[in-house]
């Protein structure tokens, strides 16, 4: 399958804690993206990391990419109840126009 | 304008009906996409339009017919759907189809086929 694998499938934490989600993929990629989806509605683009980058930050988000292990992680620091959502990694293979999504991690942040 | 607008938000249709989903963006994006998402699953690509031309059809059944009348509009025409086609249909756009840029998604149309 071309789909990415994410773990954990579900994560429940307390407000203020950090949340880490992992994504693995099987083929070479040009970049990897992370999206958030609230309550089965539209997805929101969070961050994009290119294959020649190892780490990227955006506010409380930190993304790492290890192309040798074909894996990426998304860290949300100091989580808030509003961070409760499903998080998906997504990637293109080579020059493909096709953006493939991982299976997602459902994050619950308890107040 | 930094949004992708999808209408309707909800749609219930019978198996013999014909309906259309509409997607609109005014960000100057030249690539537009239709995704289908079942409950608790990731979005699955259906179609890619690049410069108003269909560039990818992910072997979608012919009862789904996409149309891109201009660079701002994307339609998905539905005919003779099955109950298993019930899902959230998401439209997205990006500046170009092969550049390393993020997609902007609409909020989706929740379709129920009865």
Write a short abstract of this structure:
Chain A has 111 residues and is mainly beta. In chain A, 0% of the residues lie in helices and 59% in strands.
Written description of the protein model:
The complex is a heterodimer of chains A (111) and B (114). Chain A has 111 residues and is mainly β. Chain A has strands at 5-7, 10-14, 19-24, 29-37, 43-50, 55-58, 61-66, 71-76, 85-93, 99-101, 105-110. In chain A, strands 2, 4, 5, 9, 10 and 11 form a six-stranded mixed β-sheet that branches. A five-stranded antiparallel β-sheet of chain A has the order 1-3-8-7-6, with no helix packed on it. In chain A, β4 (29-37) and β5 form a beta hairpin. Helix content of chain B is 0%, strand content 56%. The radius of gyration of chain B is 13 Å and the shape is globular. Chain B starts with a strand and ends with a strand. The mean pLDDT of chain B is 95. In chain B, the strands form two sheets. In chain B, strands 2, 4, 5, 6, 9, 10 and 11 form a seven-stranded mixed β-sheet that branches. Classes of the chains: A mainly beta (111), B mainly beta (114). At the A-B interface, β4, β5 and β10 of A face β4, β5, β9 and β10 of B.
List the helices and strands and how they pair.
The complex is a heterodimer of chains A (111) and B (114).
Chain A: E1 5-7, E2 10-14, E3 19-24, E4 29-37, E5 43-50, E6 55-58, E7 61-66, E8 71-76, E9 85-93, E10 99-101, E11 105-110
Parallel strand pairs in A: 2-11
Antiparallel strand pairs in A: 1-3, 3-8, 4-5, 4-9, 6-7, 7-8, 9-10, 9-11
Chain B: E1 4-7, E2 10-13, E3 18-25, E4 31-37, E5 44-50, E6 53-57, E7 64-70, E8 73-79, E9 87-94, E10 104-105, E11 109-113
Parallel strand pairs in B: 2-11
Antiparallel strand pairs in B: 1-3, 3-8, 4-5, 4-9, 5-6, 7-8, 9-10, 9-11
């Amino acid at each position: 399958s071309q789909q990415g694998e994410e773990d954990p499938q579900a994560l429940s934490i307390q407000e203020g804690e950090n949340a880490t989600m992992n994504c693995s993929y099987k083929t070479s990629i040009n970049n990897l993206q992370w999206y958030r989806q609230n309550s089965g509605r539209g997805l929101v683009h969070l961050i994009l990391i290119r294959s020649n980058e190892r780490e990227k930050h955006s506010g409380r988000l930190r993304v790492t990419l290890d192309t040798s292990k074909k894996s990426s992680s998304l860290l949300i620091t100091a989580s808030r109840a509003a961070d409760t959502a499903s998080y998906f990694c997504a990637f293109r293979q080579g020059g493909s126009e096709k953006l493939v999504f991982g299976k997602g991690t459902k994050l619950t942040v308890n107040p | 304008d930094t949004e992708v607008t999808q209408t309707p938000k909800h749609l219930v249709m019978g198996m013999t009906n014909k309906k259309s989903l509409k997607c609109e963006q005014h960000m100057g994006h030249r690539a537009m996409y239709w995704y289908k998402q079942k409950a608790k699953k990731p979005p699955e690509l259906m179609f890619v339009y690049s410069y108003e031309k269909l560039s990818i059809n992910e072997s979608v059944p012919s009862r789904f017919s996409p149309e891109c009348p201009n660079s701002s509009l994307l339609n998905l025409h539905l005919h003779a759907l099955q109950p298993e086609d019930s899902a959230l249909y998401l439209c997205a756009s990006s500046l170009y189809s092969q550049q390393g840029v993020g997609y902007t998604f609409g909020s989706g149309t929740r379709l129920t086929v009865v």
